[in-house]
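We emphasize that the prediction below concerns an isolated chain of 223 residues; any contacts that depend on oligomerization or on bound cofactors are therefore not represented. The input was used exactly as deposited, without trimming of termini.
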Amino acid sequence: MVYCSSTGAIPEEEKGTIRECEGSIPLDPERIKGCYSMSKAMATNVVLKAAADGLNACVVHPSGILGPEDFAMGETTKTLVDIINGEMPAGIDGSFNLCDVRDLADGVIGAADKGKSGECYILGNEPVSFKDFTKLVSEESGCKPLKFFLPISAANLLAKMLEKKAKKTGEKPLMTTFSVYNLARNNRFDSSKAAKELGYTTRPYRETIRDEIRWLKDTGKIA
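Result of the prediction step, given as a token string:
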């Protein structure tokens, strides 16, 4: 069994590189931010406890996901489309850690074939700043690049205001404090264990963005 957790389930280190936790039940949900990540930490602990009791299971921790054939139009794809369509007036001065969905799929298959029971594997990439990400999108799509990037403090204040408004209207906020946190946090993850034991590799951001833009055009989701 391979359980698909998240890098968000691993307690954040303020500095340096974040690695897999050690121990039979290592994750403390109280040190995790966001209900989604907390639920992933709790579920990971259940899987690791079952593995300690004899279940042949391991855990993978993917970072963010990017790439072609996102028919669900997830948050990352929506961000890319908004940039291309000129519907994002400003970015945020933070960073992502995004992996090509094809590389993540290969990593999960590698975990099923080669993963060791009771072990965790980070499936991440190199961090990329929002500025560099939008620059790549502009170069590959021909759209106008973003010129303004909000400081994290300003973005967090705006997110709080939008969340407060959303509670009154019932509409989804354009930005949340959790999404700002994910851009502000340490997004440097170490995937060397997965590379060594599973054969995990990642391709350059430019290749992923180019392929996703081609797919978006081929499917009529962008002009």
